[in-house]
Design goal:
With 314 residues, this protein is α+β, with helices and mostly antiparallel strands. The chain has six helices and 15 strands. It has helices at 15-22, 28-36, 115-126, 158-169, 245-252, 303-309; strands spanning 2-5, 40-42, 45-46, 58-61, 86-89, 93-98, 139-140, 149-155, 173-182, 189-199, 204-208, 216-228, 231-238, 274-281, 296-298.
């Protein structure tokens, strides 16, 4: 026999899905049979497979131990660095200032140390999350390339993650970037529109002024903050979020990013001058994160700005 008190992160899940995710040796047919026989109960009462579990519910399974083998949990995230530059944190979300050179998610040989792993370690050591929370793992709602720094949004529970994903998709979370480009911009502020096509094999995109087969519309707003010699410091607002949009769009109009070896002039360099430095929450409805509506968060200690002030972009 085994019992569980349903945590906040496991709440909202169906009984059958929670059980099948928790036990790797319990056949589905046997689970349904034991539910019918009342050997699986919620709060000491008969339950149904589709019944939704709530936080604090007591789930009891009066079954043989050989089928109640829980899935093995790995704590690889404990090998990750503790280095997290936290801009803001509450019970639902955490805003992290990712440094250039650090991955957001595991990738090949860099499986252990990345922002997701660091977030898991941080919350595990704080006692706010455990691998025993079967239905949720701390996750990022957005991602930034390894060689771009800036703010990533971490979710601490499933409801927050769903809300963040929905609001990013509907552009109710506004994202602003800083970049340094080659040349002086002709206008101080422009809304750019073009069409982007991605080549999955090369992981590179092309931008054209007119729509072509398979292309997607991109909209990018830039505002000039400063310039010197052959460098312009820009604030970028992403009104659409396509792969490499900023880098490819600015290169398309003749102002590639400094340090961009893929779309710019410095072939072989991949430390593009790009930083996701500011977020604004602009919700149009009530949700679990409504208390953030109207708030703005900005990253500190931005090396790109330091390099610009020291005239390194020439």
């Amino acid at each position: 026999m085994k019992s569980f008190v349903i945590s906040k992160n496991d709440a909202g899940v169906r009984v059958d899905r929670f059980i099948l995710k928790t036990f790797d040796r319990l056949p589905k047919s046997l689970m349904f049979k034991e539910i019918r026989k009342k050997n699986i109960k919620v709060n000491k009462k008969r339950c149904t497979p589709e019944q939704i579990l709530n936080e604090g519910d007591l789930l009891e399974l009066y079954l043989k131990d050989d089928v109640l083998h829980t899935k093995e949990k790995h704590l690889d995230f404990m090998k990750a660095s503790k280095d997290l530059d936290i801009i803001y944190e509450d019970s639902n979300i955490i805003l992290i200032n990712k440094k250039v050179g650090v991955l957001c998610h595991p990738d090949g040989d860099d499986y252990i140390d990345n922002i997701v792993a660091r977030l898991k370690r941080y919350l595990y050591e704080k006692g706010e999350w455990s691998p025993d929370d079967f239905s949720f793992t701390p996750s990022l709602a957005n991602r930034i390339d390894r060689n771009t720094g800036g703010i990533v949004i971490g979710a601490k529970n499933s409801q927050a993650l769903k809300t963040l994903n929905d609001k990013i998709k509907s552009r109710e979370i506004e994202k602003y970037y800083l970049t340094v480009v080659h040349g002086k911009m002709a206008k101080s502020s422009v809304l750019l529109t073009a069409y982007l096509t991605k080549n999955e094999k090369t992981n590179k995109v092309t931008v054209k002024d007119n729509q072509t087969d398979g292309s997607k519309k991109i909209v990018t707003r830039y505002t000039v903050l400063d310039y010197y010699d052959d460098a312009s410091l820009l604030e970028i607002e992403l009104l659409t979020g396509r792969t490499h949009q900023i880098r490819a769009h600015l290169a398309h109009i003749g102002h590639p990013l400094y340090g961009d070896g893929k779309y710019g002039k410095e072939q072989g360099r991949y430390r593009q001058a790009l930083y996701s430095y500011k977020l604004k929450f602009n919700f149009t409805d009530k949700n679990c994160l409504s208390y953030l509506n109207g708030r703005e968060f900005t990253a500190d200690n931005i090396k790109l700005l330091d390099d610009y002030k020291e005239r390194k972009f020439i």
